[in-house]
User: What shape does this take?
Amino acid sequence: MVSSAAKVVPASRCERPAPAPLWTRNFVAGTFLNFFIAGNYFMLMVVMTAYALTVHQAPAAVAAFCASAFIVGTLFSRFAAAPMMERFGRMPLLVAGCIAEVALSALYLLNEPVGALIGVRLAHGFSYGVCSTTIATVITSVVPPERKGEGIGYFMLSITLGSAIGPFAGIFLANNFGYPVVFVVASVLVALSIPAALLLRPASSTKVKGSEAAAEAEVEAAADAVAGAVTDAPAEEGREDAAANRDEVLVESLHAAVSTRVPSTHLEEKVAAKVEHSPLARFVEAGVLPISVVCGLLFFGYSSLLTFLTPYATEIGLARAASMFFVVYALAMFVTRPFTGRAFDRVGPHPVMVPAFVSFAAGMVVLAFAANDWMILGAAALLGFGVGTVQSCGLAMAVRVTSDARLSVANATFYMLLDVGVGIGPILLGIVAPLIGYANLYLCMAVVGVLALALFLVVAKTEKGAR
Assistant: This one.
């Protein structure tokens, strides 16, 4: 009898399957949830220093820490989020985190002392980090593998909108209605994340604690489904096809669902070999570290915009344009991310991310030599494209071949490095800025962009078919 391996497969069975849907209920609900928590974060971040200065009469350094304490709390959450997801499950942790976000946002209305305010900011940052890491893990697990770049690009637009609407709303409400109204609106906004979380119905693999037993059970179920799918064939051929397909599914699924991330570059292999069997493996996904370091370096440069753009624009007499900077910045992200995501899926990271690094460096140079409003806004567009593309495509590179059981650790590792870049940037650059001036500081940030590009080329030089 001719074996099943030698049989000619009918043309109908060789047809290319239709692409898996992207805009599912889970994807839409998760993207809106991310927008609600990001909008709350940015709305409060831009007003917190001024709130501590004017209402609590805090010293400038203490007032600045009232804002940056949030980032410190977020950084700690990146270490804790993955173990918490494994222990409690992703969905219960996400709902609990959203509830905590609402409660902590409402606490600002109590007008607590500065010490208590810093404590609330630390706790709020921790809850935000848990929520953002968990929802990113859920979304990256439900996006079809062949549409990772496109899906993550659309998902990250939720942060883009939050970074545009949040600061604008926070400043407008604080200037016209006072800080209590800001805190009420921020609380209502983040409260919308709770029904969004309850609308999520991800696959069972995103609900379980990331254990190998659960993954193996899913593999068995998948294998049984494949075996049952051939019942229409003649008995003997059906048994042969079922056995062949079952073995194939078991091999592929065990690698995808149980094993750790398959490194896609030789550098990732070396890093993974160092970390895989160490205690750090519980908190850090080794293969994600190289691209995460690249993106963290770029976000170190990005932190200079958050910290020094306003005083720099005031110094050169372009404060009016600076007030619209982040709006144009967000619009550039919003327009380009869908295209760059699809291009990433089709042609890989190099043709998409290299222009993004160049755009970041060029934007910093234009900003350093800005002499009119149009140069400020042009720099915003260049920087929006650069930062937005590197962030979304960097995350896609990090998770596209990560097993579902390790997605939580991979997302936490990626965001941890971004937090480190944004967190230490204001501290280090705050020492340098008075010595060299703002314009020269932004020229230095252009150099940082070039260094990030060089490091990216090293990290992504020897891809081994990760697409």
User: Anything to note?
Assistant: Confidence is low (pLDDT under 50) at residues 1-6, 206-263, 462-467. The domain at 282-466 is CATH 1.20.1250.20 (Growth Hormone; Chain: A;).
